[in-house]
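Per-residue structure
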Amino acid sequence: MRPIGLSELDRDQRQLFAEALQHYLAGVWQNPRRRSPGRYDLAILHDPTDALPPSNPRALKAFIRAGKRLGLDVELITRKDYGRLAEYDALFIRETTAINHHSFRFAKRAEAEGLVVIDDPISILRCTNKVYLAELLRTHRIRTPATQILRRERTLELEPPLDYPVVLKIPDGAFSVGVTKVHDAAELKDVAERMFQKSDLILAQEYLYTEYDWRIGVLNRQPLYACQYFMSKDHWQIYQHKAGGGVVEGAARTLPLERVPPAVIKTAVKAARLIGTGLYGVDLKQTRQGVCVIEINDNPNIDAGVEDQILKEQLYEEIMAEFLRRLDQRTRLRYRGG
């Protein structure tokens, strides 16, 4: 084989070359993805293989429909699409988040690219660290169960007012993973030694039994929905993780916000405001002593058939409308700046 010049081609060969060149250039210079007719492009990061995703498939489809009604072109993406983030205007993370996880890398990259992001990196950092949350809530005088931070290098002794049973938590657990109830000092030592293999710090927290936990969804510092998450049958948690790997989940009930005790709403919104202006799920217990915050989730469940029982399609529209509001605001700021 040897290279030849165009002058050495006959008529048929020149025609074939021209067609091949046209096809090649069309493929090289076209955009990576066709620009949608929507005002903005929004990506939803999800994991189709996740056994406990923040949004089930029906909810993801509802988000897409809601976005379309508002003029947003919504597309589902996975971790394989990391290199395409700059093609979008906004990112909505519908995967369980963690710091040492691709979801956090997606959030940081999207923010650096100028996308509107929920969950934003700061919210993920704050919410996935239960030690930080405990100190934050204590500093702002928001009631929580009595809490003590246990450190690997110190003697494992509970300090008043804590008494057994207590709940031990690793700082970055989710869906009741890394959460264990212990009943005496021997069990505390045994469980803590296992937990210290994963974390230098452990939270020991007062055990408060209630029939259900309140979950208040908060979006941009405003209450959005309210659920009661009931404990799994014959268990002290909402999620019961079986030895074989299965998960049993307690029942759930969604209520109109006006039927929720005002103290629950007020406490949830106050707690969420300490994190930011994103979408949060605040878990609370209502006891005779008052309302206390259990934790704040940066990636709350939005499942079709559960959290949308009251608002239906409006729930998804409210969240998509918040993206649209932020995108329009960003566009106005860029226009003024340019």
DSSP finds eight helices and 15 strands in the chain. The first strand starts at residue 40 and ends at 45. The helical segments are 11-29, 57-69, 102-112, 121-127, 130-139, 185-195, 262-273, 313-337.
